[in-house]
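Q: What structure does this chain adopt?
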Amino acid sequence: MTRHGGTERPYTGSTWNNHDHGIYRCVCCDNALFSSETKFESGTGWPSFWQPIAKENVNETSDESLGMSRTEVKCRECDAHLGHVFDDGPRPTGLRYCMNSAAMKFVKTA
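A:
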């Protein structure tokens, strides 16, 4: 998934319904990507966030595959495909980073 740009089926990933506090890290290189503090219920079946931990930890590029115009999100450290970002998220950013559970590992904090 991370190397071929795949997408897991909705509601099948390990963290779409995770409500624990912690950090979501790249499964390939351990780069810190998202915090549980910015996770929200999008109703899509994928873990969704309104912003990354740090903008410099991810790359966003145009993705015109599958006959759609989307913005792909990749790990800046290792170029792993994480998911896509859309402009239909909640405040304060209005963004929905729709990520694949399989592309991230969750590290629980106290």
